Amino acid sequence: MGLATLENYHHAPPNMMKFGYDAPEGVEIRGRYDGEFAAILNKDALQFVAGLQREFRSRIKYAMKCREEAKRMCNEGALPGFDPATRYIREGEWTCAPVPPAVADRTVEITGPAERKMIINALNSGAKVFMADFEDALSPSWENLMRGQVNLKDAVDGTITFHDKARNRVYKLNNQTAKLFVRPRGWHLPEAHILIDGEPATGCLVDFGLYFYHNHAAFRRTQGAGLGPFFYLPKMENSREAKIWNCVFEKAEKTAGIERGSVRATVLIETLPAVFQMNEILYELRDHSVGLNCGRWDYIFSYVKTFQAHRDRLLPDRVQVGMTQHFMKSYSDLLIWTCHRRGVHAMGGMAAQIPIRDDPEANNAALELVRKDKLREVRAGHDGTWAAHPGLVPVCMEIFSNNMGNMPSQIQSMKREDASAITEEDLLQRPRGSRSLEGLRLNTRVGIQYLAAWLTGAGSVPLYNLMEDAATAEISRVQNWQWLKYGAELDGDGLGVKVNNDLFGKVVEEEMCRIEREAGKEKFRRGMYKEACKIFARQCTAPTLDDFLTLNAYNNIVIHHPTGSSSRL
After folding, report:
1. Is residue 78 part of a domain?
2. Gap between the Cα atoms of 569 and 550, Å rounded
3. 181 exposed, middle or buried (CB, 10 Å; 0-12, 13-18, 19+)?
4. Strand runs (DSSP E) across 114-273, as ranges?
5. Where in the sequence is the domain holding 455, given as residue range(s)?
6. pLDDT tens across 448-483, in order?
């Protein structure tokens, strides 16, 4: 069967279509037909995904309503905190299932989108783990998502190759590779190209379901030593959401006929509400957990979002909100103590720097920042860390290896009992620092450029010697929104001006000129910078803060074709 082209779908009426996905009853595929995609979207795989959707959709909808209720309460003045009703879990003596031997050592993990060349380079990078991303580092277009599933199936099968025609180079896997984790999207994101019973599927159930269905057997045989597959779970706010994931895992295991507790997952603690529920999240996932991770960029984003109605909690320039800020250090320390008490990994945060090949002095300075950050993490008790680029793996590996005494983790050796005294006040302490016009400019410049790349299919974007994903754009957006809403004074550069719509409009105009200069006229003309600028500026000046930039912008990358399914609703 040949491949259909975009032109076929744009011009042919539905009854003239030559190709179609073989979907089960009640499932409709609205994405472009492709022969490779059809192998992923076969009838049985879609039936599995539909089964997950039908069983869990009402619980997911309720969980999203609970998020809205928590937001309303916080907007009315309430502060997040530890739940008295689950004190017994926090104070109880229990542990999670033993860490699988296949992932006992996670000292350095590399992350990136589920793109073919990236997957090969990351698996070959020398890192212990590669987290293939369907979330913040991937623009969730139909092409990216389905191509990602094809790529991961080839990776798990060990057959993945990539021919770089520009360099005339063929990439393939080494004999020894990193262990593969996969991060599906968050609960809040839909998959508009797949309708189940007439409504969009839940994005993460599509990501998880297709990957699990096609790869669980091969993964357990080749990578997991009888366990797996392994996942990262993003954007959760409480243990209710963790419990849904646990039930999804149990249903998948039962359907596949594999033992309970085979699937393992690390949860990213990247929302402020979740920091107060770390024990509870681990408890709900205790048979499936392999730890927690400090998703620090999204955590800062969540701090602003949580306190969007609190004018007394304006953040300083985002470059000043690092891990030495008291509320950030408290979050990291509490995560380490919680994980080690429960017998699982406490993973550190992202080193987003990328090698600066044409400036050795700047490159050395960047690597020194990475070394300091990783040294802080390993001395605090983290069991591993994240890197965004293969060039950082040796630096991170050296720091962790030299400070962990040849042990695969610090679960037993660094209990951090001192962190048991961390209070709600510690976790909520206002960040210290100043606000500047340059901070407003940087937020605007980075936010627009990231969104422009995202709209054209790139979710992991090199900007100013850092590898940025959606989290940076989110921080930039919500900080601009916060400063605008409350007329924040720019006290950090001696100007003393207050942020308002006129100032912001001028900044947007000037930064667009700078982006055009830096990108070049031709790239700027061909790119989606003007569309990105409109979306970003609209969100920064909106009377009500949008929950997620990517959710708001998602419709701009949805392309519906006449039904690609052979089964009509």
Report:
1. yes
2. 29
3. buried
4. 129-133, 161-164, 169-172, 179-183, 190-196, 199-202, 230-233, 264-269
5. 437-555
6. 999 999 999 999 999 999 999 999 999 999 999 999
Q: Exposed, middle or buried by CB within 10 Å (0-12, 13-18, 19+), for 176? A: exposed
CATH number at 509 reads: 1.20.1220.12
Say yes or no: 498 and 365 in one domain.
no
Single residue among 428, 455, 476 that ends a domain in this structure: 428
> Is there a catalytic annotation at residue 469?
yes
Q: What pLDDT is recorded for position 563?
A: 65
Q: Which residue has the tokens 């984003």?
A: 301
Task: Indicate the average pLDDT of the chain.
Answer: 94
Q: pTM surpassing 0.70?
A: yes
Whether residues 447 and 399 share a domain: the answer is: no
Q: Mean pLDDT across the stretch 116-120?
A: 98
Catalytic residue among 106, 116, 183, 286: 183
Say how far apart CA 30 and CA 92 lie, in whole Å. 48
Asked if 400 and 540 sit in the same domain, the reply is no
Q: Examine the fold and report which residue of 428, 460, 485 is the final residue of a domain before the chain moves on.
A: 428
Q: What's the CA gap between 86 and 80, in Å, rounded?
A: 14
Residue 412 lies in a domain: yes
Strands 190-196 and 199-202: antiparallel
Does residue 135 sit within a domain?
yes
Same domain, 202 and 112: yes
Q: From the candidates 341, 469, 477, 546, which is the catalytic residue?
A: 469
Encode pLDDT of 136-191 as tens digits: 999 999 999 999 999 999 999 999 999 999 999 999 999 999 999 999 999 999 99
Q: Write the secondary structure of 240-262 as one string of H (helix), E (strand) and C (coil).
A: HHHHHHHHHHHHHHHHHCCCCCC
Provide the number of structural domains found in the chain: 2
Q: What is the CATH number of the domain that holds 88?
A: 3.20.20.360
Does 133 qualify as catalytic in the annotation?
no
pLDDT digits over 240-260, tens only?
999 999 999 999 999 999 999
Say whether both 78 and 131 belong to one domain. yes
Q: Which long-range contacts (CB under 8 A, 24 or more apart) does 123-126 make?
A: 123/155, 123/173, 123/174, 123/177, 123/178, 123/180, 124/173, 124/174, 124/177, 124/178, 124/390, 125/178, 125/390, 125/393, 126/178, 126/390, 126/393, 126/394, 126/397
Mean pLDDT throughout 511-521? Answer: 97
Tell me, yes or no, whether 232 lies in a domain: yes
